[in-house]
């Protein structure tokens, strides 16, 4: 079975649009998301455009602020502080990666925890690991929604996550653990990776290497979640971290690239923006 993140996200966005439509009457306005894009990396431009389009569908106000590659760290931090103070702003997202002269850690820390729709702020991360209420990072949250929508039982399963990034690998591991999976985190230095991945009942791949997971690394009946967004070096086409053509026949469930995890990330960003808005409105 191929799980379509595109289909599920379309359905969830329509539900959110219905909810947001009631906000002007209840709260006098709709949620407002500000997205900051530094430079003009084509992938980042495309992600930011996708976020603006989804906002429009859901009825969220979106402001995208573009800064040149040469923007200083101080300028960027001042902009964030100004947005933190701005009562008309509910969510702030700085598209990553940033140019080398800007500290991503400083940028993430400067965004107020209440407006951190990415769930990257150290206080949100700490809250996640302590099972406290928090904003959960969009991609990991979207992966769990996809698994549940596909009817996958997570409890008691052996889950292997390849990748240990702050954005995906670590938080999705924690969410799988919270769903009572037995989680192993693998990475570039893991010994005998194929032997490990063959034991996985749920395999989440987030390493950023085109078609890295091949059929021989996957057992029959595995649930495969492909977080990769790469260019196939041969064809130049978009592809995941999983060799879809090889792995799909063995997988019980698999996500395609594009149209799998990507749309769910954006959908969860919309959800996080609404949650931040509602929390601010109830204060
Ligand atoms: N770059 C790649 N994924 C993400 C994400 O989820 N949020 C932000 N801000 N930047 C990213």
Explain what you see.
The chain folds into 2 domains: 27-112, 3-Layer(aba) Sandwich (Rossmann fold); 138-262, NAD(P)-binding Rossmann-like Domain (Rossmann fold), CATH 3.40.50.720. Helices cover 42% and strands 15% of the residues. The protein contains 11 helices and 10 strands. The protein has a 5-stranded parallel sheet with strand order 5-4-6-7-10. Strands 2-1-3 form a 3-stranded parallel sheet, sandwiched between helices. A hairpin with a 6-residue loop joins strand 8 (230-231) and strand 9. The chain starts with a helix and ends with a helix. The mean pLDDT is 98. The chain binds guanine (GUN). Residues 93-96, 118, 138-139, 167, 265 line the site of guanine (GUN). Guanine binds at residues 93-96, 118, 138-139, 167, 265.
At a glance:
This protein is an alpha/beta fold and 283 residues long.
| Beta-strand share of residues | 5-15%
Strand line-up across the major sheet: 5-4-6-7-10
Distance between the termini: 44 Å
Number of DSSP-assigned strands: 10
Bound molecules: guanine
Tell me about the largest β-sheet: 5 strands, parallel
> What is the CATH topology of the largest domain?
Rossmann fold
> What order do the helices and strands follow?
HHEHEHEHHHEHEHEEEEHEH
Please give the domain count.
2
Mean pLDDT: 98
Helix/strand class: alpha/beta
Task: Work out the helicity level.
Answer: 40-55%
In DSSP terms, counting alpha (H) and pi (I) runs of 4 or more, how many helices? 11
| Name given to the CATH architecture of the largest domain | 3-Layer(aba) Sandwich
Give the oligomer, counting copies of the same chain as homo and different chains as hetero: single chain
CATH class of the largest domain: Alpha Beta
What shape does the CA trace take? globular
CATH superfamily of the largest domain: NAD(P)-binding Rossmann-like Domain
Low-confidence stretches: none
